[in-house]
Each structure stands twice: as structure tokens, then as C-alpha cells.
Amino acid sequence: MNLFHRRLASVGFPALMLAVAGLVQAATAEDAGKSIDQMIEKTGTKMQEAKEALGEKAAKTGDYLDDAAITAKIKAEILGDPLLKVLQIHVTTTDGVVRLSGEVDSPQSIERATALAARVNQVKSVTSELVVKGVK
């Protein structure tokens, strides 16, 4: 049972129980009908709130997966480049913004790594905190 169904059950079942309890206490059929209508309306509202919350979480998860894919693509590009050493360059991505850090062998390595990262799809910007070994 996925999260949506569990939340639906956790909202729907108590609302149904309240509706039944309201029916028992209702003096007339008209009162019972009103109670059921109110419970259905409240349940619908709660279900919509749960759906919206799940949608937001799904969007955040999607963003995280996009960032992980961007990082993996950049690492693969660095690995395939003969001028760069993948173990020297750390790549992090947050909301499409890439940060490169570490110590590389030359200024050309900094330029090359930055250019490789910038051309990967979905990269919004690249910040380089790379430094040349021995130069501080």
C-alpha cells in the first residue's frame, strides 16, 4: 500500500466512523442526511490536503533526482576528459546550481572542468571553488 493510499485510509476511515456515530445520534433522517453531507465535505477537504502534500513531496523528490543526475553526468564528463582527474574534483548540485571544489593540477583544469559542467543539460549555473595544487 503506497503512501497516498495509507493517508487516504487514515483520513477516510475516521471520517466514516464519525459519520456513523452522527447517524446513531441523529434524531431524524433529515438530521442524519445533513451529518453525512458534512462528513463527506470534511473528508473531501482532508483528502485534497493530503493529495497536495504528496504532490509537493513528489516534486521535491524529483528535484533531488534531477540534481543527482546532473552530478553524475558531470562526473562522467570529467572522468572521460584526459586533462582532468575525477578524484580531484568534487561536484555538488542543488536546484540545478553546480559547485565544483577540490585541488587540480593547473589553471587549465579549472577552466576545462567549469566548461564541462556548464554544458550539461539542466545546469543553471556553475560555481568553481577549484584551486591549483600548491597555489593558495
What does this structure look like?
Pfam families: BON. InterPro entries: BON_dom (IPR007055), Lipoprotein_DolP (IPR051686), Transpt-assoc_nodulatn_dom_bac (IPR014004). Keywords: Signal. This is BON domain-containing protein. The chain is α+β, with helices and mostly antiparallel strands and 136 residues long. The protein has two domains: 60 residues; 68 residues, Histidine-containing Protein, Chain: A, CATH 3.30.1340. The protein is built from three helices and three strands, in the order ααββαβ. Strands 1-2-3 form a three-stranded mixed beta sheet. α1 runs antiparallel to α2. The model has no long low-confidence stretch (mean pLDDT 78).
List keywords for this structure.
single chain, 136 residues, alpha+beta, Histidine-containing Protein, Chain: A, 2 domains, three-stranded mixed β-sheet, 3 helices, rod-shaped
Q: Structural class, judged by helices and strands?
A: alpha+beta
Instruction: Please count the beta strands (DSSP E, at least 2 residues each).
Output: 3
Radius of gyration, in Å, reads 27 Å
What portion of residues belong to β-strands?
15-25%
Strand order of the largest sheet: 1-2-3
User: What is the helix fraction of residues, given as a range?
Assistant: 55-70%
The shape is rod-shaped
Number of domains: 2
Outline the low-pLDDT stretches: none
Supply the CATH class of the largest domain: Alpha Beta
Work out the helix count. Answer: 3
Following the backbone from N to C, one meets helices and strands in this order, namely HHEEHE
Domain BON: 66-134
InterPro entries: BON_dom, Lipoprotein_DolP, Transpt-assoc_nodulatn_dom_bac
Keywords: Signal
Pfam family, one: BON
